[in-house]
Amino acid sequence: MSKKIHRIVLGGLAVIFLAFPTGSYAEDLLAVTGDGVSDVLSFEDLLAMPQSTVITKNDYIDDITEFSGPALKDLLEKYNIGPNETLLMRAINDFSVSVPAIDAYQYNVILALFSDGKKLTRRDKGPIWVIYPMSDHEELRDDSYNSRIIWQLTSITVE
């Protein structure tokens, strides 16, 4: 087989595999990276963690909403990431924000997977939306915290 035909065949196979991803590839949602830590979690992995609920309102929603998902603190503790670290949180569109890990230890910050009982989708800021309990703490209603409620979260890296 000539090199040109070989490249065309391989290119065609790549297109087919990318068009029909395997279940495990499609399920990878959140990469966690830190000192000696590198892991990728699926929706099922996040759902298997203890779940927390936050009922709150923020600048990006009109009404008080019930969010649920694992507590960020539980995830950080799972990977031995302490409160003195700084987290770089990155979204699907490459937006990123630095978040002091202490936030997760001081407040019930969650990695919301559900909003009012419905699974979050990309269209409604999912599949993972970092939610702070803003209605419960006056100090969280500040612009500095508003920038930390990153939606469509894909990775958390210890800076």
Spell out the key features of this protein.
159 residues, alpha+beta, five-stranded mixed β-sheet, four-stranded antiparallel β-sheet, 6 helices, 11 strands, 33% strand, globular
Structure characterization notes:
With 159 residues, the protein is α+β, with helices and mostly antiparallel strands. Helix content is 28%, strand content 33%. The chain contains 6 helices and 11 strands. It has helices spanning 3-19, 23-27, 43-48, 72-78, 102-106, 143-146, and strands spanning 28-34, 37-42, 51-56, 65-70, 86-91, 96-100, 110-112, 114-115, 118-119, 129-131, 153-158. The strands form 3 sheets. Strands 2-1-11-5-6 form a 5-stranded mixed beta sheet. The protein is globular, with a radius of gyration of 18 Å. It starts with a helix and ends with a strand.
